[in-house]
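In the design runs reported in the main text, the only information available to the sequence generator was the tokenized backbone. The following block is the verbatim input for one such run; it is reproduced so that readers can re-run the procedure and compare outputs position by position.
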């Protein structure tokens, strides 16, 4: 009873207190209201349009000087704002010069803004968990935007980055649609080929880029399909690449090989805007190799038989014994690879919203045929939705983004590149008179027989992300990121009996089908706290957050053999024999705590501290957690009294960083002793066999990164230079430790005490050569000079790695024989006896090291604008060595086409020639010498090139007679010109026998209203 009375008394006291405060405040509120009403009576509403002299500018920020009131121009560049007659308006827009305009009592104010390529220091850079002004960043971050990406007729996001970023080397692995790319950010850090992939973050969500499938069902590709094909370049707003420790350490164990941040386009407020794009393009092989014609080829073959002492000609020498027409000539490169690939792209988007809520919905469709004969194609459809919301008091914000992609890739089972280079020029016709495949009385394998079997892949990819944030009090924000990804892939490779010569009498019982399926799901939650405060001249920015991520994956490969009919070949249940080649399920869990402290004194001296504590399920007990961190600093020396008023030095900054990142890219369950199914039936039971040895002792791979750089702008940043030096050392290498064969295992997962070093120089130069109202010319040059080296590897000479690596040499090397020429007496290739034992052996003499890493690489981009006409082009350059034409061909003299260079061959004693005597393979010494030649430095030549990587020409059509509509026509090209001393198919390749990158030319139309 007493407690109830006390509660009632307290309640009454609260009501009394609130009522008293209200009475006390009422006169003040009344005065404020009166004053506000008087102010409103003195204000006027003005309107206007903001343009660049040609087109309206949406998204321009208009503020009243000295006040916080802000509005943004809409899609048509129009704005409305309430002001006082004596107010001053400030118009700001990224990439344009700020305009200050007094109201002077006017009701209409139209503004014409001028581009300012020198204002990039104020652009915000996405650093992952936070953003920072370009001028104040302490880390090494490269960025490209939609402005560059949209001008390229590409379907893979990595293709859009080629040649545009210092320190980022990207190589296309195949010209077949749906193929992939290799990327290296500041070199190779790991001795494992699959341990050098960067981390990809799409709208805040980590995206698994592990290859799709095992590769058994995708023989037409040099590797497994790339999941990055699911990302539509047209929907990307920007790509940032984080390279040094300061930028990557906040990602801890996942940042050792760099971080690629991909941000998709977001909705903008204003009137509803609709954009549609349509383009049509063609693709073709960049160039063909110079090969022998029929007379040259037959002379080579006849000389080879004569050299081998073979007479008369064998019955199986169909090309020279008269079985095949000796007068026939077919350019097999043109026949098998010379078709034109047709490329069709359709896309549209709708966006709009209010000041509080904006949306963007977009969709696209792309279809590409191939340069191979037949009806093959690659199709991709994509949908993306973004919704942003901000409360009226601007304290609550939400971002929701979802993207869904469907890919359907239908290709021949095998790449025809090898056949195009190997077939004799007088080989038979492909088809008989009735249109059926010609087998020429079983004297050859028709190359089109591989087209009877198809490679088909269907991929479904979902990426969803939501960010919720709330400003609890001034300068203190709570935020959480939620992400989900899902990838499903189904692929088949058919081997029907129709691929065989009908003379063999092979039926559908010999048909086979390989089926691969993959499912990968992942979710992540990242709660964060952010606090910002200013203490006099000191700005403090503190970030604390955590990550919780889980990923599950399933993969299975099946083989079906023997079908009742080829019409049932895609029905695996109809196979008489079924084998499960691979069946596995994996689960990965990851947790982390991360933080950042940024101190900024007077916008002049900046210190950035980042750290992360990581936990991974890929390591055993006691090794699952590790800590990583970095410190970065910057000094804006151009703000010192000595230079702040300089008319020459407009910007100057020195920055440096040091830190440690890590890697757990070893796959799942590597520390456990696991078992695998034998697949063999014994007494009705399928047995198990050991697959891996238990080793909980190995831990995280670490990468220590050091960098120093200077950035300087001259003449109001019209000339801007960046020069940086980096040195990274990766140690505690995660790799297989070789074991004796008596253990039953070839290796055990462990930490090697090997150390890999990457160091180099990165430089960029940006110039604003001309900048007027009607004409602009800007240039961008980037160059990277890098060196990779294996610094230490204990007991290398006694390990299985001794034939792969050498201490003091790069990782990407080949050990080869040293070619010394053709012996004029014997006509055979000769090689250096490097160990001086009097004989040529694999272990003793195949020791010459050739470095396949680029010596330097970069790009040179220019952009011209004259009124409504825009021209952009990019030259990519690479200084490197690679395998020459020898890698594509069998020894000269065999039943195989040859490059024209083999005409300079030895024919009789005393001849001085570049190539040895021809042989059909019957001469053992000549065959062995030819084999060594292909594994010598003679097969490796300069493969440097300068390539017109991209060119884009666009024109905005004048449509004064159609209100609120813009129309742009454009022509774009990719890989148009290549300047190189290389004599192979294409200097940009990773694997022989696969189609090189294509030359693409497209034209299109963009309509916006």
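Verbatim output:
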């Amino acid at each position: 009873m007493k407690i109830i009375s006390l509660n009632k008394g307290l309640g009454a006291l609260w009501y009394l207190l609130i009522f008293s405060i209200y009475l006390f405040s009422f006169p003040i509120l009344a005065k404020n209201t009166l004053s506000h009403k008087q102010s409103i009576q003195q204000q006027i509403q003005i309107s206007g349009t903001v343009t660049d002299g040609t087109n309206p500018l949406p998204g321009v920020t208009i503020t009243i000087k000295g006040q916080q009131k802000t509005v943004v121009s809409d899609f048509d560049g129009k704005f409305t704002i309430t002001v006082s007659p004596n107010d001053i308006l400030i118009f700001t827009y990224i990439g344009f010069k700020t305009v200050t305009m007094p109201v002077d009592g006017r009701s209409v104010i139209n503004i014409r803004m001028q581009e300012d390529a020198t204002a990039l220091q104020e652009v915000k850079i996405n650093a992952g968990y936070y953003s920072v002004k370009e001028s104040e960043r302490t880390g090494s971050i490269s960025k490209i935007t939609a402005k560059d990406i949209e001008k390229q007729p590409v379907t893979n996001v990595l293709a859009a980055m080629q040649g545009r970023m210092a320190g980022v080397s990207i190589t296309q692995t195949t010209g077949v649609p749906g193929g992939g790319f290799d990327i290296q950010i500041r070199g190779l850090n790991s001795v494992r080929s699959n341990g050098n992939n960067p981390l990809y973050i799409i709208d805040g969500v980590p995206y698994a880029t592990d290859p799709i499938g095992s590769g058994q069902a995708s023989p037409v590709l040099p590797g497994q399909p790339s999941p990055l094909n699911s990302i539509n370049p047209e929907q990307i707003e920007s790509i940032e690449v984080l390279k040094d420790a300061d930028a990557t350490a906040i990602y801890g164990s996942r940042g050792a090989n760099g971080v690629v941040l991909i941000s998709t386009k977001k909705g903008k407020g204003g009137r509803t805007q609709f954009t549609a794009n349509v383009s049509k393009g063609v693709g073709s092989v960049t160039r063909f190799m110079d090969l022998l014609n029929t007379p040259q080829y037959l002379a080579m073959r006849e000389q080879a038989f004569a050299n081998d002492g073979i007479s008369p000609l064998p019955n199986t020498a169909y090309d020279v014994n008269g079985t095949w027409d000796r007068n026939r000539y077919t350019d097999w490169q043109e026949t098998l690879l010379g078709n034109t690939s047709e490329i069709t792209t359709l896309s549209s988007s709708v966006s709009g919203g209010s000041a509080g809520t904006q949306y963007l919905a977009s969709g696209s469709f792309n279809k590409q045929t191939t340069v191979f004969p037949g009806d093959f194609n690659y199709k991709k459809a994509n949908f993306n939705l973004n919704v942003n919301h901000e409360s009226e008091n601007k304290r609550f914000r939400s971002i929701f983004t979802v993207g869904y992609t469907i890919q359907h890739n239908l290709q021949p089972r095998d790449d025809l590149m090898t056949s195009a280079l190997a077939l004799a020029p007088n080989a038979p016709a492909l088809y008989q008179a009735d249109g059926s495949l010609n087998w020429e009385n079983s004297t050859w394998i028709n190359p089109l027989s591989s087209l009877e079997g198809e490679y088909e892949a269907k991929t479904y990819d979902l990426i969803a992300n939501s960010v919720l944030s709330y400003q609890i009090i001034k300068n203190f924000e709570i935020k959480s990121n939620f992400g989900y990804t899902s990838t499903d892939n189904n692929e088949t490779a058919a081997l029907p009996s129709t691929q065989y010569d009908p003379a063999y009498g092979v039926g559908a019982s010999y048909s086979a089908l390989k089926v691969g399926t993959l499912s990968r799901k992942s979710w992540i939650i990242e709660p964060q706290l952010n606090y910002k405060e200013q203490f006099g001249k000191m700005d403090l920015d503190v970030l604390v957050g955590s990550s919780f991520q889980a990923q599950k994956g399933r993969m299975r490969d099946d083989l079906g053999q023997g079908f009742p009919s080829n019409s049932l070949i895609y029905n695996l249940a109809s196979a008489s024999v079924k084998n499960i080649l691979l069946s596995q399920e994996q689960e990965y869990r990851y947790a982390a705590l991360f933080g950042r402290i940024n101190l900024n004194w007077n916008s002049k001296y900046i210190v950035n501290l980042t750290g992360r504590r990581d936990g991974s399920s890929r390591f055993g007990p006691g090794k699952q957690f590790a800590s990583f961190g970095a410190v970065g600093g910057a000094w804006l020396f151009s703000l010192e009294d000595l230079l702040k008023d300089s008319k020459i030095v407009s910007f100057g900054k020195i920055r440096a960083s040091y830190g440690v990142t890590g890697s757990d890219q070893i796959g799942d369950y590597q520390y456990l002793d696991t078992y695998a199914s034998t697949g063999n039936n014994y007494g009705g039971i399928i047995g198990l066999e050991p697959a891996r040895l238990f080793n909980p002792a190995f831990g995280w791979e670490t990468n220590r990164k050091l960098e120093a750089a200077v950035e300087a702008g001259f003449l109001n940043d019209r000339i801007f230079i960046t020069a940086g030096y980096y040195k990274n050392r990766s140690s505690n290498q995660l790799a297989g430790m070789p074991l004796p064969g008596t253990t039953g295992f070839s290796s055990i997962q462990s930490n090697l005490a090997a150390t890999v070093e990457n160091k180099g120089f990165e430089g960029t130069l940006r110039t604003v050569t001309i900048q007027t109202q009607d004409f602009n010319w800007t240039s961008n040059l980037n160059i990277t000079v890098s060196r990779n080296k294996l610094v230490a590897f204990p007991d290398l000479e006694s390990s299985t790695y001794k034939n792969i690596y050498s201490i003091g040499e790069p990782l990407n090397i080949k050990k080869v024989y040293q070619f010394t020429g053709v012996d004029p007496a014997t006509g055979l290739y000769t090689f250096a006896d490097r160990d001086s034992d009097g004989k040529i052996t694999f272990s003793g003499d195949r020791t010459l090291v050739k470095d396949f890493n680029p010596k330097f690489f970069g790009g040179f981009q220019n952009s011209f604008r004259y009124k409504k006409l825009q021209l952009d082009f990019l030259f990519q350059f690479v200084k490197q060595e690679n395998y020459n034409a020898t890698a594509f061909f069998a020894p000269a003299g065999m039943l195989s086409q040859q490059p024209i260079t083999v005409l300079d061959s030895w024919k009789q004693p005393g001849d001085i020639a570049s190539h040895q005597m021809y042989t059909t393979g019957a001469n053992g010494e000549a065959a062995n010498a030819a084999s060594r030649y292909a594994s010598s430095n003679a097969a490796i030549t300069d493969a440097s090139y300068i390539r017109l990587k991209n060119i884009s020409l666009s024109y905005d059509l004048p449509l004064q007679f159609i209100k609120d509509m813009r129309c742009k026509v454009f022509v774009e090209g990719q890989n148009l010109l290549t300047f190189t001393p290389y004599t192979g198919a294409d200097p940009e390749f990773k694997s022989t026998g696969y189609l090189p990158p294509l030359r693409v030319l497209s034209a299109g139309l963009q309509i916006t209203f």
